[in-house]
Amino acid sequence: MTSLDLRRVDQNRSIVSQIVEQFKESLINGQLRHGDQIPPEPVLCERLGVSRTSVREAIRTLVAVGLVEIRRGNGTYISASSLAAPAELLGLALALAPTRTEHLFGMRLAIEHACGRLAIEHATVADIAAMEAQTDEFEELVRTGRPARELRNADLAFHGLLFDATHNPVFCELGKALMTAFASTMQQALHDPEVDARAPGDHREIIDAIRQRSTADYDQVVERSLSRWRQFLDPKTPNHPKKKPKEKPL
Question: Which residue intervals make up region (Disordered) (predicted)?
């Protein structure tokens, strides 16, 4: 069992928050690593100077964010894979935050560009085949007039495969989670027939760029596609699809 440098908490501040913070510090400074077992409740209570209720609440918080896992009958351990859950929470937080269109656009453009460079370098034949099969499915959904929610899920599935093609597990987890921040706006945009009709074609051009290992072609299609998404999001954009030209008086 790992030896931790724990200190007694300040009773005048949030006890649970202090316990969680001490575990975070132990992870950052390397005292705790994936797979390490943490001390049992009685030991934590004694060393922190807190009740079992406070320790249990802190552990539940750490479990919720994916940092620890409880193995029944065997104790509590630092999660062997703790990136996905915190990354997903970050994506949800960004989705809920009031964010300006240009900030969303800038972040997504940066993510897509970085993803493309990694995918162009590392994508395999199997990765490309998976993206092509998913794009076939997306095209069929568009052709049969499926609801925007299904189109959004297909769009997200394609981007998930694109992140997989980077073969970088850290970027992959963060990228997929951050796409959560764009999910609702993607669905809004896919209500527009022009956007949903073009999306599968954009995906095919992305696949071709990756197959040809062409960064320039990849950047071109991504910027064109995201520009349409941005136009849809920003009502002030001159070409916004919801804007109708004023009728001239007869």
Answer: 229-250
